[in-house]
Amino acid sequence: MSGVIRIVLAEDQSMVLGAFAALLDLQADIEVVATATTGDAALAAVAEHRPDVLLTDIEMPGKTGLDVAAELLRREDPVRVLIVTTFARSGYLRRALDAGVAGYVLKDAPIGDLASALRRVHAGERVVAPELAVAAWDGADPLTDRERELLREVTTGASNADIAKRLHLAEGTVRNYLSAAMAKLGAQSKAHAATIARERGWL
Question: What pTM does this model have?
């Protein structure tokens, strides 16, 4: 259908997913062509349906919405990505922009605002929720990719030995990376460092 914006909708909470799909389908110029509840399913749906826009949450099983956006950027996929989330964290927004995301809006916005954001993103604009724009650059993420990866493992309750085995690193190397992350974040322990990083949207 000419002029219709085709979207894939990715959201891991079934009730929210259904509500978004139903409300967006009421818009004459928007069509939800597929839905997904995990990051991997979102990537598969984009590959299969070639939508104009991927509307995705951040926190989902497996790959996050930010991981999906980064992977689509690596693939040079032309789909535009719009993040819709409850997380008003500057760290998340910074990572989203680095991943080439075209828009970042919050779930508590009216559906009309979300539809407008979809249209603007489809038209080539970048859309960021006003309440996030000022906070976007408050404090840069000091972590390296490896430190961030190890802290994600820490959040699962894994020991240094477990992490070393999973990531094929020496246990001493794991300890050094985590010590560096703790120092950067002023944390008392690796668990504290992981908590700080997650709260700031850096994981």
Answer: 0.68
